Amino acid sequence: xxxxxxxxxxxxxxxxxxxxxxxxxxxxxxxxxxGAFAHQGLWRYCLGxxxxxxxxxxxxxxxxxAFMILSSLCATSGIIIGxxxxxxxxxxTRFSRPFSAGIVFxxxxx
Length: 110
What we know:
- By secondary structure, the protein is α+β, with helices and mostly antiparallel strands.
- It has helices at about 1-25, 60-85, 95-110; strands spanning about 30-35, 35-40, 45, 50-55.
- The radius of gyration is 19 Å and the shape is elongated.
- It has a domain at about 1-25 and about 60-110.
- About 55% of the residues lie in helices and about 15% in strands.
- The protein has a 4-stranded antiparallel sheet, with no helix packed on it.
- The protein is built from 3 helices and 4 strands.
- The longest helix has 26 residues, at about 60-85.
């Protein structure tokens, strides 16, 4: 059982790293603007080789930012709960840590 938990924890760790990278990157949308390539992320947009902060407040960008941050926090807490599942402590006998970690990871993907 511990090998499955270790494999799942490793996959969760890789997924969380990729989630944080996806949140921070500037390549959510790529397009061609006035003959030059441009790309845009959640936090800034780049025209050519210059990047600028997103100053306009568009509701769906703000909602996406908020949900990506919440998802990253849920995934990080899922990893912490998953690591705690390896500890054999007699407290919390009705608290299934692997199941709880799975629920938290499921919530982070929604």
